[in-house]
TrEMBL record:
Residues 1-27 are annotated as: Disordered. The chain crosses the membrane at residues 166-187, 208-231, 251-272, 279-298. Residues 1-17 have a biased composition (Polar residues). Keywords: Cell membrane, Membrane, Phosphotransferase system, Sugar transport, Transmembrane, Transmembrane helix, Transport. It is found in: Cell membrane. GO terms for biological process: phosphoenolpyruvate-dependent sugar phosphotransferase system. This is PTS system mannose fructose sorbose family transporter subunit IID. Its main location: membrane. The lineage of its organism: Bacteria, Bacillati, Bacillota, Bacilli, Lactobacillales. Residues 18-27 have a biased composition (Basic and acidic residues). The keyword Transmembrane helix applies.
Length: 299
């Protein structure tokens, strides 16, 4: 009888101790909170850039208002700040937006579990999720934002700039910022809703894959327009045989207009493909070749 009473007393003490160590219940995360976190990351991105932590200070800054709603305990809030100041580096929109939402989702699950006295997601799992996804998502974001979307806006407004209209320089930057901010917030919401499955949805999901493919095709189309209309390369070679005059540029235009600009672009493309994206070296080589050809009045 005494042993049973001791066991019951020990169990009651354990339950009481567990209850005492439970955290306060976190506040509900709203779309306004997601917007605050996304805007904080988007606004501070690259500002407090450090060599040892890279973009972690920016990411932590964006999460501050959300973490304050999730962790009412001072010690747990401090731990949350510390784990999001670890090394972090990814592309601002596709990587940062998605991982902002995913991280908030995981932190919310952890905070709720700790408040209810349940087994919570570990700190290592949250950090490992960020580290594991920041690279692949950065690759997608760089190719779409820097390699496609910005050139679409540049191609659209380049004629304005050529005519001396200041909108040709202003609008590509402004519209690019608006566009990336808008779908970056969408990615934040999707990351929060889908949690850890958000990255899989981006990389393999049918709808998102279709959007990415569509942007890629449009980007290639716009780059083709830029190469054909705004890269000016023509041959000055002219000669005559038995009184018959030949103009090489006119002959090339009858075969395929814009052949020389296309060959220049393809030459750079194959160089980068073989040597890597060594842009400065490639441009120096191209400049040297063009100077030599112009000296001999070939182009």
């Amino acid at each position: 009888m005494s042993e049973t009473a001791d066991i019951q007393a020990t169990a009651n003490e354990a339950v009481q101790d567990n209850t005492e160590h439970r955290l306060p219940q976190p506040d509900k995360i709203t779309n306004k909170d997601l917007m605050k976190s996304w805007f904080g990351w988007w606004w501070a991105n690259e500002v407090p850039h450090t060599f040892d932590r890279m973009l972690a200070p920016s990411f932590c800054f964006g999460l501050i208002p959300t973490l304050q709603k999730l962790y009412k305990d001072h010690d747990e809030l401090a731990k949350a700040f510390q784990r999001h100041l670890l090394f972090f580096n990814t592309q601002a929109t596709w990587g940062g937006g998605t991982l902002t939402g995913v991280t908030i989702s995981l932190e919310e699950a952890r905070a709720k579990a700790m408040a209810n006295g349940e087994e919570a997601i570990s700190e290592d799992m949250i950090n490992n999720t960020k580290v594991g996804l920041m690279g692949p998502l950065a690759g997608i974001g760089d190719s779409i934002d820097s390699g496609t979307v910005q050139y679409i806006f540049i191609a659209i407004f380049l004629p304005f700039a050529q005519k001396g209209n200041f909108l040709g320089a202003l609008l590509p930057f402004l519209l690019f910022s608006i566009a990336t901010f808008t779908y970056g917030y969408y990615l934040t919401k999707m990351g929060y809703t889908l949690g850890r499955n958000a990255a899989k949805e981006i990389m393999t999901g049918g709808r998102m894959a279709g959007i990415i493919d569509g942007l890629g095709v449009m980007g290639l189309y716009m780059m083709g327009i830029l190469a054909g209309q705004y890269i000016k390369v023509q041959s000055y070679i002219k000669f005559s045989i038995n009184g018959k005059k030949f103009n090489i540029q006119e002959i090339l235009d009858t075969i395929m207009p814009g052949m020389l600009p296309l060959l220049v672009v393809l030459g750079l493309y194959f160089y980068f493909q073989k040597q890597g994206l060594k842009i400065t070296r490639g441009l120096l080589y191209l400049t040297g070749i063009l100077i030599v050809l112009s000296i001999f009045y070939i182009i």
